Amino acid sequence: MPSVMTAQYGDEQRVADTGGRVLAGNAVERLPSGGVNGVPTERVPRAARGWRERLFRHRQLAVDFAAVAVGAFDVWFWFAPDAKPYNYALSIIAVSALVLRRRFPFLVVLLTVPGFFAGMAQLAAMIALGTLARQKLLSTQTYIAAGLVWLSRFFLWPPDEFLALPWTTHIHDAIYGCIVAGMPIAIGLLAHAREELSARIAELAASRERERLLHAHAVRADERARLAREMHDVVSHQVSLIAMQAGALRVAVADPDAKQVAGTIRMLSTRTLDELRQLVSVLRTTDGDDSPQPRVEELPQLVAGAGIPASLTVLGPVGDLPAPISGAVYRTVQEALTNVRKHAGCAATAVHVQAEPDELRVEIRNDPPVLPRECPMLPSGGHGLVGLQERAALLDGTFEAGPSDDGGFRVAVTFPLARQLDG
Fold first, then answer.
1. DSSP line for 200-262
2. Of 164, 179, 198, which one is at a domain's C-terminal end?
3. Is residue 351 part of a domain?
4. Exposed end of the chain (fewer CB within 10 Å): N or C?
5. Are 130 and 188 in contact (CB under 8 A)?
6. Cα(99)–Cα(412) distance, integer angstroms
7. Which residue range is the domain that position 361 belongs to?
8. Element (H, E) at 415
9. 398-403 and 310-315: which strand pairing?
10. Strands 310-315 and 39-40
């Protein structure tokens, strides 16, 4: 047999975690600082981006170190015992200049050409030329650098050895010089094309994501418009009839108690129509929640018209709360009072709101349920607590609900505040 608390608020599985933010789109206000309704978010993606940036910088350092190491190995491999000191000096300068190849690519090519022409730094000159082609593409600097690298491979130092070579060797050196100068340019252009292709693919993915979001917004706007029409045509019509019948009943009956009940019904119907008009206006907007929403300052009127013995306590400044949090507090209290009327009859209820510098706490606590014969309970779909939990999750708040020690029920919500409240 179900317990009193289970009968009061339904199956406990209704309060289970539904996965956090289940509402999407314009219901969540994303600020430029990366926050949702004033609460910082996206900490994990930021950390991931920082990790990728550090990895990219480390990869660049590793590539630069590898370039210098390859150039140094090339000089060591072509070591000649009869070489002159200036041959080694020019080669060392050419290899050392590779450290600056990303910032000053053309200057580095000019520094490596003497080491290639009169030294042993062929790979250093080719690496510098490839970097220049990757950054400048087929510019004038690239053509000049390619000509210098080709000349360094074609012409031999000292000149007397170059002039002593047969013409067939000159043709062979000229062809090989084209390969030595052309291969770095081709590799540099290929690397640049790969970067451009990656950027275009990323841009295409982003545009597809934007298109998907726009399509989702359009579908949601159509659904909101359909819901608005149905609510306006069906619900508003029925509630209006209830208000009219209550007014007629108030005039027709002579019993004071019946007049009071009819007046209460008419007042609640009128209030429901007002809130329904606001909801319909929200559904008809295309960019989210543009209509004015109830705030914490309206809680006294809400508690006074709850139809049950209820008290309200507000501590701390609540006048400058963010609009999403203030509206969430009002809706939380409204739903909690509705649950008390449905499941606990006329049980006395206490509403406590306390604002602190960094958070806002709301607690609604009711006494044990009144017996059905004294105050009849109302049917319920059991979705109220789930909705409160989802509303709190949208604002990064915490939600608690459960039976209290005295046999009643307690609902508590805590909302973090993004800024200091003035004391």
1. HHHHHHHHHHHHHHHHHHHHHHHHHHHHHHHIIIIIHHHHHHHHHHHHHHHHH---HHHHHHH
2. 164
3. yes
4. N
5. yes
6. 62
7. 1-39+294-423
8. strand 409-416
9. unpaired
10. unpaired
